[in-house]
């Protein structure tokens, strides 16, 4: 037989801690507001923080006193009765179906190497799916400093002649 709890419920310790935090926090906050000390701002912030921390104890007290009838707990803790017809059978079927569906999705992601749906859509649309296919290779070489020439450079790009204006470059003595 379960003991009958009155008044504060099962979590009286959490209740009294919440009340104590509220009283201490309010006292510290009011001292910071009304007493002329040079660290009043510290007291105001500390009081507000203590009052905020009392919310933790209030949540513990409230959630510890929630009472759920055993009939509602049957399904949550795996005590689902097998002889239930109708709704219980539908829940079991839906549970098995969702388990199969989630395991098949999980297995397909493992086989495909974790391909995201957006990447799969891009590759189905004909665009390159891998980031390596979109990269451009650029060869870079170190050039020795050259003498300055007042001529403009001429470059041939894709069959077109492009004249580049003369630019001055600075080199650092290394």
Question: Mind explaining what this structure looks like?
Answer:
With 174 residues, the chain is mainly α. Among the domains are: 12-68; 76-116. It has helices at residues 12-34, 40-64, 70-73, 87-111, 117-124, and strands spanning 153-157, 160-164. It has a two-stranded antiparallel sheet. A hairpin with a 2-residue loop joins strand 1 (153-157) and strand 2 (160-164).
What is the N-to-C order of secondary-structure elements (H for helix, E for strand)? HHHHHEE
Q: Give the number of helices.
A: 5
Largest sheet: 2 strands, antiparallel
Write down how many β-strands occur, each being a DSSP E stretch of 2 or more residues: 2
Strand content: 5-15%
- The radius of gyration is 36 Å
| End-to-end C-alpha gap | 89 Å
Strand adjacency order, main sheet? 1-2
Indicate the mean pLDDT.
77
Unreliably modeled segments: none
What is the approximate shape? flat
Based on helices, strands and strand pairing, what is the structural class? mainly alpha
Helix fraction, binned, reads 40-55%
Ordered list of secondary-structure elements with their pairings:
Blueprint lengths: L11 H23 L5 H25 L5 H4 L13 H25 L5 H8 L28 E5 L2 E5 L10
Antiparallel strand pairs: 1-2
Concise overview:
With 174 residues, this protein is mainly alpha-helical. It has five helices and two strands.
């Amino acid at each position: 037989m379960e003991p009958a709890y009155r008044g504060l419920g099962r979590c009286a310790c959490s209740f009294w801690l919440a009340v104590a935090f509220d009283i201490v926090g309010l006292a510290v906050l009011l001292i910071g507001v009304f007493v002329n000390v040079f660290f009043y701002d510290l007291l105001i912030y500390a009081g507000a923080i203590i009052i905020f921390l009392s919310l933790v104890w209030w949540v513990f007290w409230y959630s510890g006193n929630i009472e759920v009838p055993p009939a509602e707990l049957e399904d949550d803790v795996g005590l689902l009765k097998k002889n239930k017809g109708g709704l219980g059978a539908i829940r079991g079927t839906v549970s098995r179906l969702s388990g199969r569906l989630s395991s098949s999705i999980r297995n397909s992601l493992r086989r495909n190497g974790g391909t995201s749906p957006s990447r799969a859509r891009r590759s189905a649309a004909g665009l390159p799916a891998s980031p390596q296919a979109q990269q451009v290779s650029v060869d870079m070489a170190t050039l020795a400093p050259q003498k300055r020439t007042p001529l403009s450079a001429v470059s041939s790009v894709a069959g077109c002649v492009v004249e580049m204006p003369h630019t001055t470059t600075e080199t650092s003595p290394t």
